[in-house]
Amino acid sequence: MLSKVFFAAATACGLFLSSVNAHMVIRSPVPYGADSLNNSPLEPDGSDFPCKQRSGVYDVTTMNNMPVGVPQTLAFTGGASHGGGSCQVSVTLDKAPTKDSDWKVIHSIIGGCPTNDTGNISGDPKYEGAATFDFSIPKGIPNGQYTLAWTWFNKVGNREMYMNCAPITVTGGADNNDVLNSLPSMFVANVPADKCTTTEGTDVVFPDPGNSVETGRSANPGKPSGSACGASDSSGSGGSPAGPPAYSSAASFAAPASTQATAPSYGTGSSSPTGAPANPAKPPFPFRGAGVVNGGVSASTFQIIPTAGPAPAAPTGATSPSSDTASEGSDSGNTDAGSSAPPSYQAPSSANSITSSGSCSGGAVTCPTPGSVVCIGNSQWGLCDINNCAVPMALAAGTSCAAGVVSKRHLGRHQRSHLHHGRTT
Asked: 292 and 198 share a domain?
């Protein structure tokens, strides 16, 4: 009997240690201090913000060279994926960032990062089967050496913030900081949680996600809460320094007719694929909802939906996306499906200059407030982009959308009574 108890205790301890030691770290780009980087989240009090401060935190083992506009791969090692969540990729000109560094967001992923699985994908700390994602350095960013940060807000488990940093060298960019300065600031939460916190079971919707946003198919969007959300200095106290667009309780919209969007090419060369226009419109706010992409993608996982301009014909040989049952966390990720380059960054002149054209393409619907969650019919939701368009996405099972809030569906009084009666008879 004692041996059985000992075995059960040892097994439980082993599972606990497996979970503790199998958190996620980035392997691409190659991080600073790869030999000293552990896979735990930032300290709850923010004392090791940014970049998990430690001895050798900014040791360079590999310099990551990144020409502007060229797709780069975000890849992970580890299996404690905590149900996925939301991630950002940000940069700073500081080569040894401090709490006072100014981080600028170049890509946001809402839901499905680093996986779309409901729990942990593996107990192996060396597991490399999580989803991969594409991002690129926006055109117009100045040349030079930067620090890149991957930040992650897990969906399931303790309210945490993960942050890994990597050295990068940017080439082919501009000779001024105009585009860099126009980018939104990195979101910070849960360090500490009393300033700004995310809600367990939801994929946090960043107050200001930037112009390159990717949304997971099964995302369950949620707003951060706290007095400092969207209003601090990115110094480990929650929020972000830039004034974000306010969240609003958006009105519901009627679901549009089913539309099959096609994949435009945003190449910078003079030639165009067969059937594509010579100069396709470049959406300044490319959402990857069901997946709108700012770069190459795998046709088996995402489809490209332009948020502005006419939808061009699909290039010859293009494949249609798979059904919504595909899991982003179970495939090799968001790999390049062609040679087209991503669109250049289009910085808006000011938030007040954003106006709706009254029409949206690719099945998107018009919406009033960029950055807000909108309810579309009874079974869809969307994120309002900078063009005042929202791409419809299916609600996760067991959730509903009302007044701009996605929440778990509640049973009516009659149905609860009926179910209770059924259990007691």
From this structure: no
For residues 60 and 178, membership in a common domain is answered with yes
Residue 124 belongs to a domain with what CATH number? 2.70.50.70
Does residue 290 share a domain with residue 183? no
Half-sphere exposure of 5 (CA within 13 A, CB side): 2
In a domain? residue 177: yes
pTM of the model: 0.59
Does residue 297 share a domain with residue 231?
Answer: no
pLDDT at 138 over 80: yes
Q: How many domains does the chain have?
A: 2
- Tell me the three-class secondary structure of 253-290, residue by residue: ECCCCCCCCCCCCCCCCCCCCCCCCCCCCCCCCCECCC
When pLDDT is averaged across residues 350-379 and rounded to a whole number, the result is 68
Range of the domain at 161: 1-244
DSSP codes joined into one string, 93-148? S-SS--TT---EEEEEEESSSS---SS-S-S-TT---S--EEE-PPTTPBSEEEEE
* 413: exposed, middle or buried (Cβ count in 10 Å: 0-12, 13-18, 19+): exposed
Q: Please tell me the distance from the alpha carbon of residue 43 to that of residue 50, in angstroms, as a whole number.
A: 10
Q: Are 290 and 393 in contact (CB under 8 A)?
A: yes
Q: CA 277 to CA 27: how far, in whole Å?
A: 38
Mean pLDDT of 24-33: 94
Strands 213-215 and 104-110: parallel
In a domain, 14, yes or no: yes
pLDDT of residue 126: 74
> 136, 69 in Cβ contact below 8 A?
yes
Task: Find out whether 314 and 275 touch, Cβ atoms under 8 Å.
Answer: yes
387 lies in a domain? yes
In this predicted structure, what is the pLDDT of residue 15? 37
